[in-house]
Amino acid sequence: MRSSPPSPAERPGEATEAGRAAPVTDAPAGAPRVGAIALIAIGVVAAALLAAVHVTQGSASVGVPELLALLAGAGDDQSAAVLVASRVPRLAAGVLVGVCLGVAGLVMQTVSRNLLASPDTLAVNAGSYVAVVAVAAFGVVLPAAGGGVVAFAGGLAAAAVVMAMSAGRGGGGTIRLVLAGSAIALALQAVTWMLLLLFPERTTGLYAWGNGTLAQTGLDAVTQLAPVVLLAVAGLLVFARRFDLVALGDDQARVLGARVGRIRAGGIVAAVLLSAAAVTVAGPIGFVGLAAPAITRLIAERVRGMQRHVLLIPAAAVVGVIIVLGADVLLRLAFGGQAAVEVPTGVVTTIFGAVFLVGLALRARAADEAGAGFVVGGGLSRRGRILVIVAASVALVAVAFVSLLLGDAKLLGGDILNWITGQAGPLVDFVMNTRAPRVAAAILAGAALALAGTAVQAVSRNPLAEPAILGVTGGAGVGAVLVITLWPLATHLGVTLGGFAGALASAVVVFGLSLRGGLASTRLILIGMGVSAASAAITSMLIIATDPYNAAKALTWMSGSTYGRTFPQLIPLLVVLVASVPLLAARRRELDLLAFDDDTPRVLGVRLGPARLALLGVSVALTATAVAAVGVVGFVGLVAPHAARALVGGRHALVLPVAGLLGALLVCVADTVGRTVIAPGQLPAGLVTAIVGAPYFVWLLWRSRR
Asked: Where exactly are the transmembrane stretches of this chain (predicted)?
């Protein structure tokens, strides 16, 4: 008797909650699996064909005729050396990484019953990467197996934190999982970049490697880790039936005798082990662990008998290999052999995975998983609110004054007064002429990002949204870096216009696609995550392809820094900020209504479309000019509005000024700390805000578990 089809709530592409994995439906007794096995065999053949094409590509002039001659035993030594030393190791690395990430993502999705679980969204890759970089930064040299152990420890710790943060009453939600993973990954990324900047000689080449590259110097890493991978995959196949039970749900699995906790823990450990092996060999190659198992499950829905993990696991491995090798082949077709050595394969897979993530979001039914408990309520009394505004203003002035005094050269208060009156000496004059614009840049950019975040959260009715998470900041970064890349002598105004164009394009994509579901939280954040990931990958590709040996340039820009700013460069930001403040203040009532629901604004005469468009336009302008001024600074647009609502309540007449003051305060403090903590060395302000903002965001997630 044929089993009944899964209900709409069980279909991954049509789930009420976009990322909830469909339970495995039992195939009928004796159901033929010939079709499923034949499909996997076709995938193996496709992977073999890709491998054949892959081995013919490279920077050396060794093509098909030379390789055929080698097979016939008539090849020359140079062709054999290229094949053995370069192309076979790269091919072997691609196969190993594809198997690892495909299987790891499948198991993570099963044990969490969430289609968005992967080594990327659980911050496993970020944890493994920071562990490897930390070991290298402190001068420890390890073989591939030792590096794998370090990567495994870092990835497992990150996954444990994300799983704990994303769990809530009734289980982990899709958006909770994605946001927790993104927050932890951003914090770990900040630590990683800090280590790369502080120890550039010991971590040479790790920036490009951190984007995921298949380039190998031999087969040592693959041969050392291949047995571990084979054992892990074999173990997962042995316990495949238990994963089938877990996919049915905790209650059903327990009734059938499964020890859900142990199975889930064992699956996570095995998946992290596979992810760590992939990171050790090729660095964190993004989104393969998300796309490969999701594609496998979409295919399995339509193939009878393929829903069991004994077939899903090898199928995901094959799809993972096809994605990795396909991305590498495409990369070398597009850029040529030599350029493909410099541009990481992970950039291509990240862009592909980002598009796939957006596709998943569009397939999903609109669900509003908005983070109840994040919008904090009434705040203080009227007198207390006034005191908060006064205290924040005084604190900002005090911090700005202290920031002018501190740095690699310490000044006194009298020096600042002499500089203002034009009576300072040459040394004080030089220090103040370089330091004062930096302080001004931090204050203006912080206020702009905070106001942009406040408006975005109100328009999307999502207190977890902010320009960085929704891809607007990343789009501005792409636009600015593109101008710098194509026009090295571009003025700061040109960079600002490029940033504005990039931010506008990202906002149009994210909010345009999200409007299909009425800006539902699930769809909005998933599309924003995809655009943000693609933007980061494109930015990395532009920088590495044009200047592969200058990682500091990339890190400084993408980490957000006020270094080298001048007052004329801040004019666009100041103009946009001065124009935006009265516009937002005039629309404070609309912000209150839009943050409530759709019906109330309509009843009170607010035209939703034009109002949203105008407010989002202001947010894009603020974000673009802030990014052009100081680079990419994250979490400010999330933390400052939350803190403001916690202090003064939800009315935007008070939230807007307090958020602006707190944003300026946060970035100014971060810039001051970055300039003084390791003086004369410096840390970009964006790294400090990420390290401060990520724990605050995680605390919000933890708080919302109730």
From this structure: 34-55, 91-110, 122-142, 148-165, 177-199, 219-240, 261-278, 312-335, 347-366, 386-406, 439-456, 468-487, 493-513, 525-546, 566-586, 613-640, 652-673, 685-702
